[in-house]
Amino acid sequence: MSAVLSSVAALLAGVGLMLCGNGLQAVLVAVRATDAGFGTVVTGLLGSGYYAGFVLGCLLGPHLIRRAGHIRTFAAVAALAAAVALSFPQYVHPAPWIVLRGGTGFCFAIVFMVIESWLNEQATSRTRGTVLSLYTIVTLVAITVGQMLLGVETGNPMTAFTWIAVMICLAVLPIAMTRTAAPPVPQVVRLRLGRLVATSPVGAAACLVVGISNAAFWSLGPVFAQARGFDAATVALFMSVGVLGGAVGQWPLGRLSDRIDRRWTIVISGVGTAAAGIALLAVGALPAEAVLGLIFCYGAFSLPLYALALAHTFDQVQAGEFVETSSGLLLIYAIGAVAGPVPASLLMVHLGPQTLFAFVAVVTLALAAFTLYRMGRRARAPAESRPGFVPLQPATHGVVGLDPRAPEAPAVEAPTGKG
């Protein structure tokens, strides 16, 4: 264990600092946009802008890595991400903020690509599960800490952007000074979305729904909490409790999915998410403690859904198609994430902030219904061909290479769109 930790400690420290800054920025941008009077629809567009940049980063990142290598690419995009963070208080206007959020998404897509492919290079078939668990823990803790930092902000409300830039810059130090060898030049992975959808309609649909619902939650959840009357500290707590709920819900649903048809756990996840969302429609009549309890339940059912979709899809494909499949699912997720915040924000404007979770309830119930329909058309994969569940978060395809189900292989390139 100590040998595994020492080999990836610098990488985990770097990604932890980056995600701490990104966790704070995600909540801060939504809160400050509301304070500046941007409106709920514009706040939704800020979320879409982030994921549009994320998609672009997935497509262009491999070319940058091939050109400059992992360490220099990480340093370059970290510098750009810090500059973007410092630019927010300089241009307090919807149009530049949408562009800046796109820049942040672009940078972090490449950051994840660098870190995860590097971790994959360090891991072996015997240590991938441990490395993945460490990475998942660091990810969730860093995002939670970053969100909670919103509650300790004092003075000028825009100074928190400076702290975001500081954390991003500090993240370069452990990466630049590590003795761990960088991965070799990545290879090309083809992207065949039509074939993927035909192979696993439920997996593809689930990733699309996760993108739609998660992006709406991350972009507009702080707006919902502010409308409930929460102060900055409680808004941060609200979002963090949802993340912690997701961490708690990963293992029970994952272990259950190893014992029954995984599609049943996707149905359970979708129905549970919808139930928590419907309960949050009564947010105005609920005490703060009840709202926090419901958002914990929401996270416990909604955040594991991506991993369940991934595991179900891998039941349907061959080992040699592992990376191609995960790349396609990521892109489907990102497409949903671009689209999700806009209709959710329009509903919030016209029908009230509580309709954010009504929107999520509708799309997750639709997923549950579609899954039940597909279960009547196709039997589950044979038990002996079903790999075990591993908890994953939708960042980039590289993290899937850490999954102990993945074959031994060098780091690979993200989808270029030319396959």
From TrEMBL:
This protein's source sits in the domain of life called Bacteria
Q: Which UniProt keywords apply?
A: Membrane, Transmembrane, Transmembrane helix
Q: Which residues form the signal peptide?
A: none
Q: Where are the transmembrane segments?
A: 36-61, 73-92, 98-119, 131-152, 158-176, 196-220, 232-253, 265-284, 290-309, 330-349, 355-373
Q: Which Pfam families match?
A: MFS_1
Q: What is this protein called?
A: MFS family permease
